[in-house]
Amino acid sequence: MPVTDVTHDIDTLTLTIVAEFAAPVERIWQVYADPRQLEKVFGPPTYPATFVDHALTPGSRSTYYMTSPEGEKFAGVWDIQTVEPTTRFTFEDAFADEHFEVNPDLPVSHNSYSFTAHDGGTRATYVSTYASAEALQQVLDMGVVEGASAAINQIDDLLAAV
């Protein structure tokens, strides 16, 4: 399993997940840059993702939805802020309605995904920062740790299949 550490810190309003992969940084970057690869690993296995729009370009908006086993769709948007190809990107992640309009009743997170060479492979660090302790607690209660860990742990299978 790639996930090696998960910590949340109410004082700094962050959730940090660290994972390690037996693949070069450039290959892990491709997983996030290519929407067809990304949708195979974003979202827990029982809630597969579909990316409608996706480009790792500053100022762009990625739109996606995850589909439950019962067929219910849960939408979200990424507003891409910065991109340092192969090593890092940042974005705002928000829950959305079926038209990809941000749901103001659910938390928005600022995210930084970074990829560094480590022991012949890649260490990925995923940091999500929330506006308040209540927002962080809300997503923790919604199962974000379990869902994100299960999603990230799918990357090994994708790498083995390609």
UniProtKB/TrEMBL annotation:
Residues 22-159 form the Activator of Hsp90 ATPase homologue 1/2-like C-terminal domain. InterPro entries: ASHA1/2-like_C, START-like_dom_sf. Belongs to the AHA1 family. This is SRPBCC domain-containing protein. It comes from Aquipuribacter nitratireducens.
